[in-house]
Design brief:
Elements (H helix, E strand, L loop, with lengths): L3 E2 L3 E2 L13 E2 L3 E10 L5 E8 L11 E2 L2 E2 L3 E11 L4 E10 L2
Parallel strand pairs: 2-9
Antiparallel strand pairs: 1-3, 4-5, 4-8, 6-7, 8-9
């Protein structure tokens, strides 16, 4: 089992609590190769590639084109590489609340 944690809800409202969509993973995950997030119309609102998990500097802050997104459900796709060289992926959704 891959130990990659993807939150299903976050609240980018600036209160310092749960403000970021942060991908967390265990030590057996070497790299997140691809993370894309889409709005309900299929527009890509966030893309980040080739980064280490657990890094707040690459977490999504709930903005698109420097504007806060409206509350709602967003779909994500993640591809990651394990230290043994194999790849896995995950798809799901995250709810943005304010």
């Amino acid at each position: 089992k891959d130990d990659v944690y993807v939150p299903n809800v976050f609240s980018p409202n600036g209160d310092g609590i749960n403000d970021l969509f942060l991908i967390s993973a265990s030590a057996d995950i070497e790299e997140i190769e691809h993370l894309s997030i889409y709005d309900r119309w299929g527009n890509m609102v966030y893309l980040k590639e080739f980064f280490v998990p657990n890094d707040v500097n690459v977490a999504w802050d709930g903005t698109f084109r420097s504007q806060a997104v409206d509350p709602g459900v967003f779909v994500y796709r993640i591809l990651w590489k394990k230290k043994d060289g194999s790849n896995s992926s995950s798809y799901g959704d995250v709810t943005v609340i304010k």
